[in-house]
Design brief:
Helices cover about 30% and strands about 25% of the residues. By secondary structure, the chain is an alpha+beta fold. It has three domains: about 170 residues, C8orf32 fold (Roll), CATH 3.10.620.30; about 60 residues, N-terminal domain of TfIIb; about 160 residues, Galactose-binding domain-like (Jelly Rolls), CATH 2.60.120.260. Strands 9-8-7-6-10-11 form a six-stranded antiparallel β-sheet. Strands 12-13-15-21-17-18 form a six-stranded antiparallel β-sheet. The longest helix has 24 residues. It is elongated. The N and C termini lie far apart (about 80 Å). The structure holds zinc ion. The site of zinc ion has 8 residues, from loops.
Amino acid sequence: MSHDADEQLARQLQEEENRAAGQGQVLPPSMLGSMQDGLQCARRCEDELVQAMAFSVLPMEQLQAQASEAVEVSSAMGEDPAVALPDALAETLLAWFKLSFFSWVDKLPCERCGNGNTQNVGIETLRPGAPNCSFPPRSEELQGGAQRVELYRCDHCVPAHISRFPRYNDPQALLDSRKGRCGEWAKCFGLCCRAAGLDVRWIYDMSDHTWVEYYSSAMGRWLHMDPCEAAYDKPLLYEQGWGKKLHDVIACHHLGLYDLAAYPGKQSGAADWRQQRGETGASSAAPAKAPATRYVKAHDERVASDRPDRLRGGFVRASGENKPHEGVAKVADGNPHSKWLDFGGANGRETWLEYSLSQQATPVTVTSFELTSANDFPERDPRDFVLEGSTSTADGWRHLAAANNASFLGRHATLSFDVSSSQPCRRWRLRITALRDNSAANCVQLSGFALFAKPAAPNQSPAKISEQRQGLEQEGRWRRAALLSR
Ligand SMILES: [Zn+2]
């Protein structure tokens, strides 16, 4: 950090202290430490060279292609508002970071033999003035701003080997080490966001957690992103999901520090904000809009099926999902070993799953549908449900079929249901009203949801079908001709 930046940081911390003193508060030392840490990180991530280093590890082409697809699908399906490209990029980056880039460390595996069952044998402090280390610090540890190094002993190695886990503070060093706990995750992820051109700030909750927020211009607000969980826009994750109390939440941006006394994830405040997100239940104001996932491509064109009448090439969304591993797209991928899971569908609450064709597609009459149970917890299986249909997002839902007391024969088992209604539709919604055991299940899950239609009537697109048929016949004739000439 340059001298100017040091001075600016010191000034800012002093101001913060003065402000607190003026309000009769005394800042606890941990809070001061977090502010310093957050500001240093934010400033470091403004360094163009550091951003360039981060940019070089990002698979930008792949991320941009995925983000563009999300935008395309959103506008093709008439979502209002349609997802904005930077928002889609932020979400794509988050999933990549969690799934492909960074790792969580509880205890460090042996760096020599890979043994995961090592013993923590202490922490060395590298701060100036700290007692002498039993092992000299490595130059990369000092360069990476590690102030502490955790030591892990492996007894498989003879003699016992000590592996060092430097807790790097410098986001650039984390691009190489690619591992850590929530602080390291937030620092490195925030840097990747900055490299991708997203405006971010680091959030410190004094009780012990750190995450990132990204400013969405499309939504006109800061948007919660927790890289450790790949959680996107779920500020209630901590208080509702983990049951922890947030207190003294601060935001560190390169332009300054912000006290988030009314952090939107705190259930004690910002009811309006949470209601807009659909995260509150009943309220005296307008009813909260049901939260739903965005539409994603079903990517089911190549799903193996002995049924040529299976609907393909559509889009799916649901009342909720458990990303990144149990997102809604998993229900259409034809793999009985992957699943869609929705925590919103437990305790007798309704949950739903939608399959839609594009808005330009010819409406189709579905004659049957199949559900495939997931790998575990039979109590999470749908038991009572309704299939509804509609022709467009502006249209209401019509009842097509219903099932009560459905019971799967086992795990990865498929049940088939007939649909007697001949209503042609472009969208189908499976509304699940009860699970196999509502009181025992904490979520709903399914491995598969497939729809089957009557074969297309010849008058639906006469030109194309006859062209195709002619093409096939001609090919047949050529083949026959080729055989005859041999
Ligand atoms: Zn070892």
